[in-house]
Amino acid sequence: MNRELTISRRTVECAELSRPGLDTPAGAEGVVGLGGVPVVTGRVRELRVRPGLTVYTADVRDEQNLEVRGTLQPGLLLVLPLTGEADVSYGGCCFQLGHQGGGDARSRREGLALALTRPEGFARRLRRGACRRVVSLMLASQWLADNEEALSAHPGLIRFRGTHLAARHWRLTPRLLALAADLIELRLGMPPLMRLYLESRCLEIIAEGLGALSGSEPMSACTMRPRERRRLAQFREFLDSGEGDGWSLQALADRIGMSPSTLQRYFRAYTGMSVFAYQRRRLLDVARIALEREGISVNEAAHRTGYTSAANFATAFRRQFGIPPSQLRPRN
Question: Which of 83, 181, 200, 203 is the least buried, fewest Cβ under 10 Å from its Cβ?
């Protein structure tokens, strides 16, 4: 496949993509594409560990600016982003998964747990040039039923499971990051033994992830009142317009009619990140588009995004997209 080809459509369905070898032990090495055009390159894998327990791993680079849509079945979804960022929606609720800025990237990683009581659509927005490594575990209804006795001992988890689109972020420990990395790197050369190894890693991830849910109430954009969601959607559109660039948190809070602390709490529930982390990410997206389409210099891109140092801009850009800004070239 030619990596320079582009797809004119803005959205595709998962079922349309060619994914050779995705459900084999080795996974798909190379390209996931559409009609001969690459959508992502790298390595992806989907393995059914037990009835109702499926693990998905991806170590990929996006080759298109594209939205990929699909449907998830009822159950619990655990998502562990190791590197890079992911812009996803479940049932219309948006989440920005990955490093939230500030401090060491490994220590700031957060996972996402999502409850689904009925089939629900999802959308993943790809950004050309972005790289990510992510592990997802789907605990379907059958697996949850088989383990009902153990799970029923945690009332908080029962409430979480029973709330459609309930979502919670939790801090990924170094142990969890190491376990997830093992799943990505795993080569299943001896199926019987490797399946046991794979299952042990998955169960350890599940135990820690569900443990983070058992003692707390669900936090979800989709369990907010409709009026609150509308206000936050309008506020996000305001940020995306660029009108609020350079505003203080107090000024932004006044704009939406909340206190700064309430705005931060609600906005994090709605998007998965703080207001200023969202602003930084959006401005870097704008810079990437300008670098690709206008051919501006790295210094100019840094200036447009409010960075006083081109070196600091390049570091932030590489953290978000996985490549330095100097590697981008204007596209015809």
Answer: 200
